[in-house]
Each structure stands twice: as C-alpha cells, then as structure tokens.
C-alpha cells in the first residue's frame, strides 16, 4: 500500500470515528491532518479531540476555511473576474460599433466616388462633396467617442488589476506585522526546498519565539503586546537579505526561510536578530514608563534534500524548545538536539 493510500484510509477512518461527513472539504482537512502537512492544523484538531469537541458542520467548515481557503480573497477575485468580463464585453461592443460605422463610411465614399466619376452638373458635384464632408465629420465624432469609451475601459482594467494585486498582497500578509503570513510561508518554504534540491544549495530555517510573551501581555495589555510584535517584525525585516523571507508563524512565534544559506550562517542571522531585540528598551509612549526589554529564543535547522518539510520544521521547533528549556534568550542549532529527538528524512 502506498503512503497516499494509507493516509487516505487513515483520513476516512478518522472521519468515521468522529461522525464527520465524507465530503471533499472535510476529506482535505483530515488527509492533511493525518499527513501532518501543517503542524498548526494538527495541533488544532488534536486540541479539539482532547477537549471532546463535536465536529459539527460549522466546526468542519471553519477548519477548511482557516487552513485551505481565503474567503475574502476568493470573493474579491470572483468580483474582479466578473467586472473584467463586463469590461471586455463592452470593449467588443464598442469595436463592433466602430466597425459598422467604418463600413457605412466606406460605402458612402464608394457611392460618392462613383457619382463623381460620372458626368454630373456642378451643383450635384457640390452636394456630393458636402455629403462626403458631413460623413467625414460624423466619422470623426464616432472615432472620438470610441477613443473616449475605450480609454474609460482601459482605466477600469488598470483599476481591476490594482484591486487584484492588493487582494493578493493582503491574502499573503499578516495584517498586524506586515510580514508574510502562514500561507505565504508554506508556499515560500516549498519553493525554497525545491530550488535547494535542483541547485544543490543549502537552505535553512529559523524558528523564533518571544520569551515570556504571555506574561508581558498580561502585565501591559494586548495593545502593548501588539507593538512588541511589530517591533520584532521590523527587526526581522532589517536583519535579512532580499531572498530571505520572514513570516509570522502564529501568535508570538516567527519563522525565517533562508535560501542558499549554510547552517553556521543561519545561526549567525539568528544571533544577529536575538542581539538586536535584546538591546531594545520597550517604553510606553503615552506615559513614558519604561517596560523593560524582551528576549528571543531561536532554533535553527538545515533542510535535508528529499525530506518532508514537516521534519525540517519539527527539528527547528525542537531546537527552539531546547533554547527555551536551557535558559531562553539564545540560539540553538539542530546539532544540539539529542540524537533520540532528531527528525531527519531518509
């Protein structure tokens, strides 16, 4: 039995066990849960199971929407597509009108040319020439009108393009910090892993977590906590180079994808970020009260060609856990993970 077949059976068995209808959306959730494709999804489902949560239609729909769709993005793109279809239809109508007008103008010129070729009195020739002038003026008006309407249509297309770009950007950006969100991280790390396998370059991953962040939030409030998250996002952005990607992984946990980077260099990047954050002093701008500093724990791991990305993430997460357990405010390499805890693809 192949891995895919085994996972399919496990997914269907899990759905039957929890009374979940076997529809495509639910199957997608449970297949990836069994495959542990997305650690956040696995954690969420495990918590629901541990809490004895009923997998009602609304709970199932929420799981699918949270991890596999972006409803706002879908709605906007569908709306933009519909508008674009309307714009294209109008443009064709304008061009058809222009074609009909040009054909009529051509027929008028042909008739006039034929009449002038014959022997006609001067007064009739003048009437024919005046007719040509009138027809030319009408054609000029039609052409200007067409240019105006096509210019308007072009403006609509440009606006639609902007709307789609904004939607795509918002769909891949964490609204609080402005960093890449979880969906963009998943896409980025897959692309970076594929590139590493094709090129033979090394790719590394950092996982970072703010130490005692819950306590900080409880003491100073969520608004101040949000400012700390924004501060860390700024430090991350300033500490990485163009091809690297910093993302908010969830809560106070962040990740950095480092293509074409050796493990020692990744550790140096992690140390740079940790040091910069440790030197920051948090101040309440309203009261001027000093709130002290914050620190980071960081785990670093190197991608092994051919391994599942979940294994890379697990090693970085384990290194982060060790950093927490050994005093916090430090960077730990996967090399420091006890052998029995190491997850490496074969």
Give short descriptive properties of this protein.
346 residues; two-stranded antiparallel sheet; alpha+beta; 7 strands; 65% helix; 11 helices
Short description:
By secondary structure, the protein is α+β, with helices and mostly antiparallel strands.
What does this structure look like?
The protein is α+β, with helices and mostly antiparallel strands and 346 residues long. The chain has three domains: 67 residues, no CATH class; 100 residues; 160 residues, Reverse transcriptase/Diguanylate cyclase domain (Alpha-Beta Plaits, 2-Layer Sandwich), CATH 3.30.70.270. It contains eleven helices and seven strands. The strands form two sheets. Strands 2-3-1-6-7 form a five-stranded mixed beta sheet. The protein has a two-stranded antiparallel ribbon with strand order 4-5.
Topology:
Layout: H1 3-17, H2 24-35, H3 39-50, H4 57-68, H5 71-117, H6 122-171, H7 182-199, E1 204-210, H8 213-220, H9 222-239, E2 245-250, E3 253-258, H10 263-278, E4 282-283, E5 290-292, E6 296-302, H11 309-325, E7 331-333
Helix pairs in contact: 1-2, 2-3, 2-4, 5-6, 8-9, 9-10
Average pLDDT works out at 80
The best one-word shape is: extended
For the terminal residues, how far apart are their CA atoms?
A: 19 Å
CATH C-level class of the largest domain: Alpha Beta
What's the CATH architecture of the largest domain? Answer: 2-Layer Sandwich
């Amino acid at each position: 039995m192949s891995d895919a077949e085994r996972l399919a059976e496990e997914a269907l068995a899990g759905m039957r066990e929890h009374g979940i209808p076997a529809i495509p959306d639910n199957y997608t959730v449970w297949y990836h849960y069994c495959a542990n494709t997305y650690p956040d999804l696995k954690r969420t489902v495990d918590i629901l199971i541990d809490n004895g949560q009923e997998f009602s239609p609304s709970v199932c729909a929420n799981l699918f929407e949270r991890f596999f769709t972006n409803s706002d993005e879908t709605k906007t793109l569908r709306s933009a597509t519909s508008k674009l279809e309307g714009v294209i239809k109008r443009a064709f109508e304008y061009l058809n009108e222009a074609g009909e007008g040009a054909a009529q103008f051509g027929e008028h010129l042909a008739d006039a040319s034929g009449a002038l070729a014959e022997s006609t009195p001067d007064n009739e020739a003048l009437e024919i020439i005046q007719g040509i002038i009138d027809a030319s003026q009408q054609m000029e008006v039609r052409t200007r009108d067409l240019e105006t309407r096509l210019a308007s249509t072009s403006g609509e297309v440009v606006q639609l393009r902007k709307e789609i770009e904004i939607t795509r950007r918002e769909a891949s950006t964490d609204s609080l910090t402005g960093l890449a969100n979880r969906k963009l991280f998943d896409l980025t790390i897959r692309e970076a892993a594929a590139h590493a396998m094709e090129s033979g370059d090394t790719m590394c991953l950092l996982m970072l977590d703010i130490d005692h962040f819950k306590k900080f939030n409880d003491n100073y409030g969520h608004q101040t906590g949000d400012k700390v998250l924004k501060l860390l996002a700024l430090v991350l952005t300033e500490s990485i180079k163009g091809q690297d990607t910093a993302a908010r992984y969830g809560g106070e946990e962040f990740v950095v994808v480092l293509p074409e980077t050796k493990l020692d260099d990744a550790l140096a990047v992690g140390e740079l970020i940790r040091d910069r954050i440790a030197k920051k002093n948090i101040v309440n701008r309203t009261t001027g009260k000093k709130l002290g500093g914050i620190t980071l724990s960081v785990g670093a791991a190197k991608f092994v060609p051919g391994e599942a990305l979940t294994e890379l993430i697990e090693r970085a997460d384990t290194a982060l856990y060790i950093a927490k357990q050994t005093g916090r405010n430090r960077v730990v390499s996967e090399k420091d993970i006890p052998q029995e805890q190491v997850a490496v693809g074969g």
